[in-house]
Amino acid sequence: MKILITTEWYSPVINGVVTSIVNLKKELQKLGHEVRILTLSNETKSYIENDITYISSLGVGKIYPGARVTLFKNYKYLQQLMEWRPDIIHSQCEFSTFRLAKHLAKCLRIPIIHTYHTVYEDYTHYFSPNQKWGKAMVAVFSRKVLKNATYVIAPTEKVSKLLQSYGVKQPIKVIPTGIDLSCFQQSNSKQAKTDIRERLSIPMDDYLLIFVGRLAKEKNLEEILTYFSKINHKHMSLLIVGDGPQRQYLERYARKLNIEDKVIFTGMVSPEEIPSYYQSADIFVSASNSETQGLTYIEALASGLPALCRKDPCLESVVEDGVNGWLFENFREFERYIERILLDQNRYINLSANATKKAYEDYSSVSFAKNIEDVYYDAISLYHQSKDIVYINQSGINQ
Questions:
Q1: What gap in Å lies between CA 22 and CA 7, rounded to an integer?
Q2: Same structural domain for residues 173 and 298?
Q3: Is residue 357 part of a domain?
Q4: DSSP 3-state of 329
Q5: Are 25 and 156 members of one domain?
Q6: Which of 122, 144, 124 is nearest to 134 (CA)?
Q7: Partners of 31 in the beta sheet?
Q8: 311 and 172: one domain?
Q9: Which of 169-183, 188-202, 207-221, 242-256 has the lowest mean pLDDT?
């Protein structure tokens, strides 16, 4: 099968969507499929590099940090993709590249599968002064985009139910995003722990909490910093791995809370180094309320870290209370669960083992690709059946 994946972002950009696409592409190719990527260039020119087509774009960071759009169809580059003749298009974003996907699908008469990665309700502060209006806009926008898809993939049941509440009529399949977990194995964890802690001047006997992700408002890191400042434990540090528009604010906030000597901001870290950072820590923490699935949660679990995260429906099947971590709703619970995890060594060992087992059994990139492959075949069949029905009706048969 020839598969075209369209996305606003691709490597070297680092985020959950890109990680998902990179892993999917690799596993689909292992299954024998041809896969190409259509994405936006970081400059005002289009070009092709290997099997990736980059379309010229403009930065619109005022709408959302790092966002880009293209106003052109760059027919020369799209024509080359049409000559390749993909069997299906799998779109991953709802904006410029979805418009290009629609154009290609119409010309080639092939179906679009769309993965709905982002819960835009949690981002209304970027584009609407009124949260209620913002949510209404998201519902209308989502219906309008997804009516062009033959199938919709939701990473969690939470996202599926949300799309149904918007009035989306397309078939929705829940498929948790898969991750290549091989690099998160703990075989080198002791050396990684030593190297990272020495580099960042973190005491070896400190309990280390870690957050990995984009430093943006929707990640709710102020709550983690506030809770961390209230915990009465001298031998504990907090490692914040990543960068984003809120980094300077969060660094100021840590100073305001008088915890700057126990909170380490690493800035951007290369993907190859991320496993070592997980393995240097003891607990993964997050207070984000904007995740559709949260790939960093899975990475942390695969690294053997119990997870302590703000309660959210999308995490109910990922973090199981007392099994591989806990979900908290307030500071009292956060503090109590920290104590449960760290003060009982036998419990910690069990939580760590369960974390690894859960990640590898439920979220591998291999099973993810096979599930997506099944949807492709179903979508192609459904698409051509619907076109046959339209043709029959237009011909006046069975009317």
A1: 11
A2: no
A3: yes
A4: coil
A5: yes
A6: 124
A7: none
A8: no
A9: 188-202
Q: Are 44 and 71 in contact (CB under 8 A)?
A: no
The per-residue pLDDT for 286 is: 97
**Containing structural domain, residue 94:** 2-179+365-394
The closest of 153, 112, 151 to 369, measured between CA atoms, is: 153
Structure tokens belonging to residue 263 = 């909170």
CA-only gyration radius of the chain, Å: 22
Q: Is 113 left (phi over 0), alpha (psi -120 to 50) or beta?
A: beta
Q: How high is the mean pLDDT of the chain? A: 89
Do residues 37 and 10 touch, judged by C-beta distance below 8 A?
yes
- Reading the block at residue 94, the tokens are 């709802």
Q: Where are the alpha helices (DSSP H) in 45-173?
A: 75-84, 96-108, 131-146, 157-165
Q: How far apart are CA 162 and CA 312, in angstroms?
A: 13
Is 399 inside any structural domain? no
Check if the beta carbon of residue 71 is closer than 8 Å to that of residue 58: yes
CA 92 remoteness from chain centre = 11
Within a domain: residue 22?
yes
pLDDT for 398 equals: 46
If asked whether residues 80 and 202 sit together in one domain, one would say no
Q: 183: closest CA among 104, 270, 256?
A: 270
Instruction: Please give the model's pTM, rounded to 2 decimal places.
Output: 0.70
DSSP-based three-state secondary structure for 76: helix
- Mean pLDDT calculated for residue range 181-193: 75
Tens of pLDDT along 98-148? Answer: 999 999 999 999 999 999 998 877 665 555 555 677 788 999 999 999 999
Residue 310 Cα distances to 14, 107, 196, 325, angstroms: 23, 45, 27, 11
Please give the sequence-ordered ranges of beta strands (E in DSSP) within the chain, or none if there are none: 2-6, 34-40, 47-49, 52-55, 58-59, 68-69, 88-91, 112-115, 151-154, 172-174, 207-212, 236-241, 263-267, 283-286, 307-310, 325-328
At residue 58, the pLDDT reads: 84
Query: Does residue 164 share a domain with residue 17?
Result: yes
Answer yes or no: is pLDDT of 390 > 60: no
**Taking residues 63-85, what's their average pLDDT?**
79
Contact of 155 with 293, CB cutoff 8 Å: yes
Spacing of C-alpha 320 from chain mean position: 20
Three-point CA angle 287, 194, 297, nearest 5° = 25
Please state, in angstroms and rounded to a whole number, the distance separating the CA atoms of residues 250 and 97: 33
| Lowest-confidence pick of 70-79, 99-108, 263-272 | 70-79
CB 15 within 8 A of CB 64: no
**How far apart, in whole angstroms, are the C-alpha atoms of residue 369 and residue 383?**
21
